[in-house]
Amino acid sequence: MNRLKTAKHISTFTNPPIICIPLFLIICIILSFNGANFNFNKFVILELVSLIFASILPMAIILFWAKKLGTDKDISNRSDRYMPLIVGIISYFIGFLVSFIFHLDNFLTCLLLCYSINTGVVLLFTTKWKISVHTTGLSGPVAALILLLGPIGALFAILYPILIWSRVLLKKHTLSQAISGGVQGFFLTVLEMYLFVNILNLPIYNMTGLIDSILYILAIILTPILLGALSYIKVKNPLKTFIILEIILLVLFFALMPVNVFIIFVLISLTSILISLYAGDDFIWYKILTNQSFKTL
Question: Residues 6 or more apart from 22 whose CB is under 8 A from it?
Fold first, then answer.
């Protein structure tokens, strides 16, 4: 299988309404446990609400709108994305209202509100700039899993640098757009979850602490941001610069961060490096890591 086909498969699987199916399934399973007891009825209800409002309705409008406009399923033209994003905002908000009114689960209630708000932020960006909906759609549920599972949830962020490569290779986004979508999705979701818990008086117990969650996010995004910055800034020896800065980050994480955060940083860094080496000359990170000459983006 060539790299282009691999990138297409990754892009299809990580389409926001699709990637949220397995990730929300995990979230709903976790939320359905009360100690060692599993509440199957609660799981079915939470899963149905998640499927309908976070996946089925957003995907239906994407497919309908793409067919109506005669464009691809990614709706690549920035100005054509307004309607699906608006419908997504409404769908997530209805899901929030259903969960809130019927007291289904405090975590899911706040998360669906986060989805609605974050999609609104993406819509604002989209009026001027084509920020990546794919990386935003991945980072939201992964941030939720970090809040629920800590380092285990952060492991799902291994997909982040892989998805960046996929979207850039397919020419769906620039490197900065792909990186930025994930950065804003990670931070907004965590910050909003803590905000809504307090504003709506919906207590959630045993969530990963706010500071720890932010540290996990930094462990996830710093190496992709570093490689991204070197793609835009002209330096004499990009490989040497990357190695020096990466070693500094490695030492700082080892010395100052909890061991779980350090491990996540190492895993995401290795994934970023490996996907770059796999990508070859078609991806600028490869040229940085092999010290080839290149024009900055």
Answer: none
Which helix (H) or strand (E) segment is 37 a member of? strand 37-38
Per-residue exposure over 128-163, b if at least 16 CB sit within 10 Å of its own CB, e if not: eebbbbbbbbbbbbbbbbbbbbbbebbbbbbbbbbb
Structure tokens at 143: 């941030």
pLDDT range class, residue 72, cuts 50, 70, 90: low
CA gap 267, 10 in Å, rounded: 19
Q: Return left, alpha or beta for 150; rule: phi > 0 is left, psi -120 to 50 is alpha, else beta.
A: left
pLDDT in tens, 155-201: 999 999 999 999 999 999 999 999 999 999 999 999 999 999 999 99
Choice between 139 and 79, residue whose per-residue pLDDT is larger: 139
Q: What is the dihedral of CA 58, 159, 28, 49, to 10 degrees?
A: 0
Cβ-contact 287, 231 below 8 angstroms: no
Backbone angles phi, psi at 186, to 5 degrees: -60, -55
How is residue 97 annotated by DSSP?
A: H
Reference 280, options 47, 7, 84, 36; nearest CA is 7
pLDDT of 112 > 70? The answer is yes
Going by C-beta distance under 8 Å and a sequence separation of 6 or more, which residues neighbour residue 168? 174, 175, 178, 283
pLDDT grade for 78, boundaries at 50, 70 and 90? low
Q: Which of 8, 181, 170, 270 is nearest to 278 (CA)?
A: 270
